[in-house]
Amino acid sequence: MEARNFSRRQMLKSSACGFGYMALAGLSAEAALKSQSPLMSKTPHFEPRAKRVIFLFMHGGPSHVDTFDYKPRLNKEDGQRLPFKAAKNIEKSSQENLRLMKSPWKFKQRGESGLWISELFDNVAEHADDLCVINSMHTNGQSHGQAVMKLHTGSDSLVRPSVGSWMVYGLGTENNNLPGFISICPSRGHGGVRNYGSAFLPAVYQGTAIGDADTAAREAQIRFLANNSSSVSQQRQQLGLLQAMNERHLAQVQVDNEIEGVINSYELAFRMQSEVPTLMDLNSETKETQALYGIDDKTTENFGRQCLMARRFAEAGVRYIEVALGNNKWDQHSGLKNGHERNSKMVDKPIAGLLADLKQRGLLEDTLVVWGGEFGRTPIAQGTNGRDHNPQGYSMWLAGAGVKQGHVHGATDEYGYYATRDKVHIHDLHATLLHLMGMDHKRLTYRYAGRDFRLTDVYGEVVTEILKG
Amino acid sequence: MRPFLYLSCLSIAVVCVVNQRAHAEDPQTELQQKQAGIEFFENKIRPVLVEHCYDCHAGEPDPENASFVLDTRAGIRMGGDSGKAVVPGNLKSSLLLQAIEHDPEFYAMPPDEKLPANVIADFRKWIQMGAPDPREGQVKTSPQKKSELAIDFEKEREFWSFRPLTKPDVPEVKQSDWPRNDIDRFILSKLEQKQMTPVQAADRQTLVRRVYFDLTGLPPTPKQIQQFVNDPSPQAYEHLIDRLLETPQYGETWGRHWLDLARYADSNGLDINLTFYNAWRYRDYVIQAFNQDKPYTEFIREQIAGDLLPFENDEERTQNIVATGFLVMGAKMLSERDKEKLRMDVVDEQIDVTGRAFMGMTLGCARCHDHKFDPIPMTDYYALAGIFRSTETVHGNRLNNQFVSGWMTRPLPIKPEHAAALKKYETDLKTLEAKLKTDSDALEKLQGDTSQQMRLKELVGIVVDDAEATKTGAWKESAYSKNYLGVGYVHDMNEEQGKKTIRFTPDLPAAGKYEVRFAFPGSGGRASKVPVNIQSEQGMQTVYVDQTKQGPIDGIFTSLGSFEFAAGKAGHVEISNKGTSGYVVVDAVQFLPQFKLPNQDVKLAKKDEAKPDHAAQQNRIKELQASVKSLKSELANLKENAPRPAPMALAVGEQPDPADYRIARRGNIHQLGDKVDRGFLTIASLQDPPPVSPQQSGRLELANWLSQSQNPLTSRVMVNRIWKHLFGNGLVRSVDNFGHLGEQPTHPELLDYLAQRFVAEGWSIKTLIREIMVSNTYRLSSDFSAERYQKDPGNHLVWRMNRRRLSAEKIRDAVLSISGKLNLQQGGSSVAHYPEQAISPNRNKKVEQNPSEFRRSIYLPIVRGNVPAALTVFDFPAPEMLVGNRPTTTVPAQALFMMNSPFVVSQAEQTASKLLTDSKQSDRQRVSELYLACLGREATTAEQSEAVQYIDALKQQNGKENSDAKVAEQKAWASYCQILFASTEFRFLN
User: B63: which chain A residues are within 8 Å (Cβ-Cβ)?
Assistant: First the structure.
């Protein structure tokens, strides 16, 4: 980057207090930061319908035919041979003798809209009239790793920037003291950091992880945010001297925007250090709110904390927040009954709590909530109590800013195997998410290695049918 | 709808159709058929085309989105770049049908939703009818795009990077006493053209810090600084460079630059993050290549085609094979189920890195279409694709999963002693394992399930097995269910209920209370209410047992309760099948004394002793048990003392059937077009390239072609990279892109001059580095100058040295070097302790302490997705990507790392302890030494006072909390040391 003319800091320096730490609370850093930060808030391509996204990632692939895609025929023909051709590339050993398997869970019509939702999501079903369910999702990648990366980055073969990075690249942040893209307890495998990485986009756009899927949410932290070796007051003194020395260095070299940037980064870091823990401290929430997210119950505590943190970050202006039920938990090739039940018990109440809370605070107006896994699961039995991966048709849902309410879009065939009507490819969903955030997925490009790259590569159509009129 | 409107202008087409079909009997029928056909089209086909296809496939063909149109007969018959859409009467050749049937190998059209089955049937019928179609009109051809025009390579070679290397004249300069060598003349000449002069030279202290970091990646120690600053020799500077070029740290620093291009990593990353246990050999090869100053062309040849090069000895062969790890290092989507796609994705990655690393060319675009900006036609891409597709990279399966691919690893030459030892080991292992198997099999056969037998023996109390029980009625022996004791169990065959009993009579050693436990292999299908009578001192009692489930104790036993028994054989337990439904199964009964037995040895009544024919068997069992035991220990011993495994390398090989490849339309490998001869980039072939051997992949020829001195890109790209590492910016700032979208060179003549020098000096990197470093240009200070800054704020003309950020490795290594913790051990694996999946998709166990903790950063494990924070925070590139020019970002995470990371905090503590060891030093002396170590200069008096004041204040505060003055002092100093590590002066290089 080219050095600019004599900087703002040069002018402000004389008026700033001698010791740098005094400037921590001051305006100078913020002003300087705003003038040159790649994270500063940017104008979208058109009026956005959503200001931020909360993505609830269900790692492993929850079964659509057991949750949001009701298939009466599947129930009726339980145990029968397939009336359709199985997709290619599925497990060879199981190719013969494929049988349909009905859902072990009951479906009911919910709300005024009459959306079919199974008992696995009884709590979320209370918000049926807010959901926009897409039952015709399809994607690439029969394997988890591919499908997870496809979902997060739009590519199932190469390292590409993740959705959240594209969003922050396109829109900047609303809160300079916080990262623009946060991933709460992400899985470490199946792409791991690449799923919230910026790839060739500048590193400022990468997601900041809070803990990981191997860590309990109550212990999840941003790395190096806490100092265990010295007291706040001593650290303040330390930073004071450090910044004084840095200022002297800057004065001695006269003009250097990079040194200035580093000085600012210390100030910002110190502010983050005090602001973020406050933001992540869920004890400041009322008992009622904590209970709403199920934090008072062992089963729902972990995911409840993640969801509540997400709401707090959304409130504070973070652009893209991912909350993961990680470590491939939904991957029930066997033990479907217990596994899916366990998972739904962990997430159902917290998600419902999140929706209710966002709504009561008016945040659902401009926050988009997205729920889904990397693919669905086959209506075909695997063993006696399991289902295989089903990327050729599955469900995701959206709720909140800009999307229709109590609405179902698209459909799979009568058994839930292939998406058939109004198919929505994951590229289409990406295009739609960007659209909701005020960006044209064809115009949001970044030049790298001689090419203009897009989140949607050369694909993607905005699913206009799900947009609120 | 206008079904008959087109009838009059139809005749030719329909006659032609009908002739083909040869069904026409007479003109009358023919006409009727004609009309029926058109009617069918108008009713069944046209509306579908209009509704579902015309949105994209009408009007003008669009080569990128819809290469053909369906709105005319001519269009639908002609089809697009995949072939004809409709061939009358021929279902197989009509690609339209494949598309609407959503053939997974082809397109799925319409993309949103498959047409209903009856509509697809209509299309089949229509095609079989001869595809009657009244629609007239020609296909409009779109004006040819630039990409479709033949590339005029001669004209394109006028572009600066494709031009043959020139031999520029060294310019004359006005300030003729300034230049020390020709580099300076080129630089000064440009400056003079803008009426500028360079700033003054850097002082010796600044220079020595710069040179040390640039060549060794480490700061000079206070002693080394003083040595150089006080060296009276006029050649002091040159000597310093020469000396540092010969240190092993030089290769570690410059090798790391290359590893950025090689996207070096110790694991695969992406979906299945398997550990690359052998990647370190490539890393060490690169370091060694730089240290040995291997000619760059050799370095290229070995990495592209080392396995195909001649060699004189094992060492050379090893290097050659290891070097090809360059091609294997990429991140591969190992779980891709379409293995041909995986293969071509790997090929694509290889083409991409080869193009950018060696030639600064972005070739990836040409996978789907001719390059839009550079003269790279698709044919060039697929010429290279043929070469890499004939190379084996993806290989075999991993994780015992048919869908998870592996990659090539190749055995390296091995010392004869080592090979012999391995061979002996393999043979011994096989023999032992075979023996063990024979004996264990025999033992198992004799014993039934040996482990069950063992369990029986271990049981305490008095156990009576079913074999010793007294049976009434027919009880069948079985060993079907596995949870039994002894040699098996018996069951009642689910017959003759009420007629069978089985009585267990223990010989109890003493009178007293015994808990009675009943063992049976419970499971579904067994009786749910089995009566068990217990005859004890308390009389007869009946307990009912549910055998549909396993017993609650160890999955075998069910407690029947505790009862008083007399000594001897007075009591018994009898199981009957009276009133049962389902199988009654009986294994054993255990009597557990609830008091201390007089003789602890009594454990069980052995059932076999009584039977004489069992004695021989029992002896045999004993023999076998002894043999198995000794074989097992022998085996363990053998494995423990196994010779180290044969050395393997990440490396490519040749495919058995090297062949040219075909153009994949729009990059779709299931849509192959014309064959392309294997070859190289046309634009960079200034003379006829070497022909590719039909027996080989063509990598050897590619390697030779790349390293030709006439190749206009190879030398220019490399000298620019070297310049970049010494100045912070390249002469061409887009170091990985020498194409039209890249930047122009600021000094094209200097670039060519350096390239010429590079070639002339035998592609010696060290020689080039030295030549640049001895120039006055490199020795310039980084001082600001308002006047010059106004003219050239970006320092494109090099009026000063750029102030540079220290890289992640340099920060970390410098901190360790100052704290005294740095371990300079060279080479070797850093991930031997990692599991097969470096990071698992499920819960991860903590990987133990990193054995390379205090080694130089280049030896840290580079596990994709888990690169050490000390590196990633400071712009270490994602190891999946080729990065010739690391970005320099300023993010709060860096500040947080310097302020709070355990690494910086603990190293600051270390540094403090080190400073405090010499108790004779004054605090001011210590501060000064710290300044020299961290910043390469002495502290001013004011700085010394500031430091001492800070430390004293902290010492006092700490003293209040901590009674130990030593600890208080140490903590205060640590806090101060950390300030220096975090300071901008430390993190920047003047």
Answer: none
